Amino acid sequence: PHVIKEMARLGTSSQPERSGSGKGKGDKKEKDTPGKPDKPKKKGPVEAIPSIIEDWASYDIPEEVREAFKHDNTGAGVNKITITKPTLTLHYMGTLANQLRDLGYNHLALPILTLAEVIGADVMGSKAMSSLWHTRLVETCLEINLLLAAGFHEQLAGPAIAEEDQAVSREEIAKWHEQQEQVRREELRLQQSQEALGKFVPKATTSKDSQETTPPWTVSGVNLREVWTDKAEVLLRLGYYQGARTLLGEAHKAAKTFSDQHTEVRILQNLAKLSILEANLGQGVTLLQEAQRLGGDEEFWFQTVLDMADAVMREVDSDIKAKKAKSILLHAVKVYKEVLESRSIKADQFGYFIATLEAKLATIQLEEALDTDNNAMQDEPVDMKEVLQLFQTCAEQLLTAGYPRRAAEVMVQHAGALRQLAQAATIPEQLHSCLLEGRRILGHAVSLMEELLQDVQTLTPLHEIQNMTLPLQREVAGLKVTYAELLVEIFEAMAREDRNRTIIEARKGSLQRMVEDYIRSTPDPHGVEKEWGTVTATLPQSAIVQLTAAHSMARGYTPLRAKSLYLIGRVLSVLSAHLNPDHPSQQWELQYLDLNAVLPDNTGRIPEEEQGEGEAQSEPPMSERQQAKYTQQARQLKAGWQEHQDVLAQATEVLVQCLKLSLQNGYTDIAGAAALELLECLGQYDPASASQYLALFQSCHMSQAMSEVLRKAQLDPSTSRQAALMHQRAYLLSRDVSTNLAQGTVMKNILSTLGSKSQAWKRLGVDLAHLDLLKELPPNFTIFVLQHSPDKCFLYGSVLDKPGQGKGTGTGDKKGAKQAQGSVMSRAKVARQAVHPETIDNLLRQWQEFRSDVMQLLLRQEGQRTQYVQRMKMLQNIDSDMRVIGKGLGDDSLEEWKLQERFLELVGQMEDYLKPIISQFDAIFRPSHYRPSTTATVASSVSSQTPDDYILLLADQWLMQLPLEALNILQSTGISSLSRDFSLQMLYHRIHRETEDEEGRKDTGKPPKSPPKSQKGDKKPPKTAPIDRVIPPGCLPLDTSMVKYVVDPHEECSETEEHRPIPIFSDMMKAYPQLTARWEGIMGDDHIPSLGEWENLMADSTGFVFYGMERLACYPSSIKLAAMNLQGCMLMVLLDHTQTNKSFRRQSKADVHKSPTLMSLEKHLETAMLLSLSGVGCVLTNQWHCTLEENAQKLSKVMKDLLGTGKSSGQAVRGLFIPHLIREEREGEEEEDNKALDAAMGKSAGEPGTASDIPPSRDTLPPGTADTGPEEMGGVTTSGLEIPSTSRQWFSMVVYGLPNLILT
User: Fold this and answer.
1) What backbone torsions phi and psi does residue 1105 show, to the nearest 5 degrees?
2) d(Cα 4, Cα 78) in Å, to the nearest integer?
3) Are 156 and 141 a contacting pair, CB within 8 Å?
4) CA distances (Å), 936 to each of 454, 804, 939, in order?
5) DSSP string covering 203-258, please?
6) Could you please report the per-residue DSSP string of 284-326?
7) Spatial distance between the Cα atoms of 1061 and 1082, rounded to a whole number of angstroms
8) What is the rounded distance in angstroms from the CA atom of residue 181 to the CA atom of residue 412?
9) Residue 213 — φ and ψ, nearest 5°?
10) What is the pTM of this model?
């Protein structure tokens, strides 16, 4: 230090002279130089070095100290005199830092990395070397959660590659090529001269053969390609893909030029990792194979084998990927065991390699074993016992080799396999055995990791690391959370068994209990049952201790804190249910209790006036002994109830804290689980709050389900920027516990870009104020929630409170609104029913088979119809008495009747499944109770009539596959609109849309570019006067001037088809010129739209209509739909799911090349999810296949209601569900509808109607009713008491999203 102090004094004294001599020049240079990163404030004198570990993270060595090192001749400084082989020194310092990080001493690597940066920058004089060590400091600071220091070193590291270094490398390559070309010319000249003299000429050696191989590293010089490769490895771990790709590309050019095989192998290996991370699996495997051909040491082969197995297992929709990966791993294990016999000195290292490879093998086998269907079909099914034994062997080998952290990871996988086995257990003994074994393994892993953490923390004073969060500390916290989760599962199993035993004992009579007590022997538990009793005695306390410790350890890591809070609340919730003297299901059965029964008075007796005649003398008086006994029992019950209430209050408080923390940080999985626990805590005692938590749970659950659909649609990162960012985020989160990369700059940039550019990402989020979302919805919405638990063992149902009347009604009287709200009682109600997962799975399978049968029948009918028309065309010139005409289209009438009967049967099964829930809401959906009795004050432009109520079904992804609209409870004419949506949060996103695009259009004053017109030579659309259409309260307007369409893009209907989409759609547009005059789009008779035209039409529209064959996702694929931004599209009408022979042949050829995952995304539900995530407000689509005639009727009916009579989107489709009742209801409204139709068609009041006016013709009747009379629809007229039969055509089209859109 005295040398540093003296040199610093000399340096500061000479600094003013240097600055003064070049003042003007220096000022100019300083202005041109970009701003340097902010340096941390120095504490103490210049020569002072950090005294604690934390200060080393942000320590910036002063320039005076660096100068002192350079001019020191005493041998105490860091310069070329003291360090004669800097490259070798840095090699060993890097190895030491990596070993410290592997052992868990990440903070001790900070001084080493700082010294290495000084050697690279000052001794070797290389900016590239300095940047490399700053990048390693960034990684280490992130690992110990010193974010400010990480940002400081990230600024010092600079860009991935400096332009000066890149120029130097390329110049060396160019010089080398020039020298090689000169040598080749000299060899050729010498060969020609020797041949001219007739002398013997030996074969000339090529430049490549004569070139000497560059050593892997030099002793004193800087090898840029080595430095770049090292830096690329660090950048790959940090998630900087583009920077790593640039570095590896430049390094690979140099290594190829100079034949540096050692560096080339490392470059190829890192390029392969980059390709695998970007889901370019084929290229990754090819690069790994190329690297293996060049060869390497045993560690290189170990890493490449793991990378290759990982690449193979990442393949999607591959049936042989597990087999390929296992063969690779088994071959590697065999080779390593053979080599180990001859290299016993490396037993620990080879033991680690073998154990890791076998653990990877066991993981693959576990996935196979859990997939029971495919595992049973294999030639050699995987035995679960062998998998468990392999996990145990690997953990023991890793402990022997000295790798406890890796052994703990294997133990966690082993315990997870045992938990999976316990869930499938059928007998209690097997369940107890698996859970206890898993507890023993996880307990051993926790003790191992706690010993490691204790060694790390005791080596350094605690005050020096109190602001850090070590990776080992987070790993221990995560392990404790996993251990506590298993303890909670054991406690739940014990509480469930104890509750069942209590119920069985309560059902026994006194005589039976007496006999059993007399003949029962004293229980003597042993083995598993004895251990089970010992463990379960203190389970809640043990779990809470572990979770409290985990919460304290993870003070800087939010995911583990949220998870630990959730599990603490879950433990307390289970404990409160266990302490409850009543059965836990009682809180869900309040509707069966007689709450109006006469309550006893203070003495505990019922008043005599309330007793029946002779009731007081019906029972003999109790003896004092009996009274004392019952009094004691009552006290015990009361004490148990009070203790249950206290614990329940604690559980609720902790869960609310967890819920807030999870929503703040976007942890939808934890937030959903906490909301479900709160729902179970409240039950039916607080239906308003319970229904809100059910809606929150559904929003979180459906956010995860839709996120999975989006992930499947974005499997290839090269398809869109959104896909690339989502893959990069998933990689960073996969290693977040150890690396803390979620707090880094890369993750922040990813989230910022996704939040600003990705519409799908925005709609996956759940708002922190979710419990207040109802206040932002229209007041005429009635929201009905149907949701399964994650394991599908419980079905929940709820009707949410009516949204507030003050917003969206158009009234300005806040006081009156508050009084109206206060006068209306809460209508919230919640229910729960235990169900079997197999029941819903079987029901979904039957509906899937039904959809397939409908498609096959309609396709067969289409083929028969085509043949029939062709036959008639051939026979049209033959005399009528000579024709022989077979059966026409009536051949499949029997199959059609069978399908109808099957549809009714499946609807009945759906009714039976949902009846225990929906029967509790029957009174709410009655017309007399459904419409509110009080009316709200509305604007003067609107009449004082009550706005129509809209029923919205919020269901999970399983129930969404069922025709819920066919439920008997929803067939009343009092329901004016019936739609469905995925969650309350998605509904909120649809209503409260961003207006950036619309404001941008207004500012520019120019409409967006539109695609070509549907017909060649079309002129500009005529200017039409707008229709003065009043928007009812609670509805949203939709501008029809920006509606776009695509009709039959491949023109796949034959000329003989009566219901061709193109002429039908054209006739519809002509029928409503006032609203369709400015519609633009493409029809198949013009040209086939390109992908760009599809995107422009959908993105630049307020409404979009697709009317054609097959499925919408067949044209712009699901991959493209997921990446689109359709924020401006409020309404999308999909008249698809029809087939002709021509379209079927074309689509079959295209589907052959699609993966099963991509095919699953083309279903109606997944398509609606992707469109909703892309920003569409309302989607009208078919649930199953239908005919061209049915789609034509739907178009006529829906457009008549939307364009003609001005009904909302939900009301227009509602008429398709109950056409027989809607027609009866419309008889009194026919006059008003005629006036609205006249206005939409541009006619005056007295102008005569045309063929397209009402009364409706065959084309305008609802589907399935054109040829149906009263007798065929049920045997009685609609005015009778009997309800007509239900037809499958009525419920084909459904509404996803906003039901309150009005076309203007």
Assistant:
1) -125, 125
2) 11
3) no
4) 67, 11, 10
5) PPPPHHHHPPPPPSS-SSS--HHHHHHHHHHHHHHHT-HHHHHHHHHHHHHHHHHT
6) HHHHHHHHHHH---HHHHHHHHHHHHHHHHT-SS-SSHHHHHH
7) 12
8) 60
9) -75, 130
10) 0.86
Classify each residue of 266-287 as buried b or exposed e, where b means 16 or more C-beta atoms within 10 Å of its C-beta. bbbbbbbbbbbbbbbbeebbeb
Structural contact between residues 270 and 233, judged by C-beta atoms closer than 8 angstroms: yes
Report pLDDT for 350.
Answer: 92
CA–CA separation, 273 and 285 (whole Å): 9
Chain mean position to CA 1185? 29
* Cis, peptide link before residue 1255, omega less than 30° from 0: yes
CA dist list (Å): 1170 to 727, 734, 1108, 1122, 1129: 18, 25, 20, 5, 13
Residue with tokens 């067949």: 1114
Eight-state DSSP code of residue 426: -
Retrieve residue 461's tokens.
Answer: 């004073």
3-state secondary structure 1041-1093: HHEEEEECCCCCCCCCCCCCHHHHHHHHHHHCHHHHCCCEEEECCCCCCCHHH
- Burial label for 309, CB within 10 Å (0-12, 13-18, 19+), is buried
For residues 187, 192, 195, 196, the Cα torsion angle rounded to the nearest 10 degrees is -140
Angle at 878 between CA 873 and CA 884, to 5 degrees: 80
Distance of CA 808 to the CA centre of its chain: 32
For residues 13 and 870, give the distance between their C-alpha atoms in angstroms, rounded to a whole number.
105
**Is the Cα torsion angle 1174, 1180, 1185, 1188 positive or negative in sign?**
negative
Walking along the chain (1304 residues) 10 residues at a time, the average pLDDT comes out as 53 44 40 50 69 87 83 80 88 94 93 93 90 95 93 92 89 89 87 73 46 47 89 94 94 90 93 92 93 90 94 86 92 92 88 94 90 64 87 94 94 93 87 92 95 91 87 94 94 88 73 72 71 86 94 91 95 90 72 48 46 49 76 82 89 95 94 94 87 95 95 90 92 92 93 92 92 88 93 93 53 41 68 92 93 88 77 67 48 77 91 91 65 35 50 94 90 85 94 58 42 45 61 87 91 80 91 87 89 91 92 90 91 91 88 88 92 93 90 91 89 80 52 52 46 37 39 38 63 92 88
> How far apart, in Å, are the Cα atoms of 582 and each of 439, 586, 794, 999, 1058?
30, 7, 20, 59, 67
241-257 vs 261-277: helix crossing angle, rounded to 10: 150
| R_g (Cα) of the chain, nearest Å | 38
Could you count the other beta carbons within 10 Å of the beta carbon of residue 690?
Answer: 26
Q: Which residues neighbour 855 within 8 Å (Cβ) at sequence distance 6 or greater?
A: 1139, 1184, 1185
Distance CA 458, CA 387 (A): 38
Phi, psi of 869 (to 5 degrees): -65, -40
Please, which residues bridge with residue 1037 across strands?
Answer: 1302
Nearest to 587 by CA among 684, 519, 688: 684
Collect all residues with Cβ–Cβ distance below 8 Å to 498 and sequence separation of at least 6.
578
Element (H, E) at 981: strand 977-981
Specify the pairing of strand 794-799 against strand 829-834.
antiparallel
Predicted pLDDT of residue 1026: 56
Question: Comparing C-alpha atoms, which of 244, 293, 236, 237 is closest to residue 264?
Answer: 293
Which residues 6+ apart lie within 8 Å of 1019 measured at CB? none
> Alpha helices of 605-667 — where are they, by DSSP H?
624-665
Instruction: Supply the pLDDT for residue 804.
Output: 58
Sheet holding 1131-1135, edge to edge: 829-834, 794-799, 781-788, 950-955, 977-981, 1293-1297, 1178-1182, 1131-1135, 1103-1107, 1043-1047, 1080-1083
Burial profile 994-1033: b = 16 or more Cβ within 10 angstroms, e = fewer: eeebeeeeeeeeeeeeebebbeeeeeeeeeeeebeeebbb
Classified as helix, coil or strand, 786 is: strand
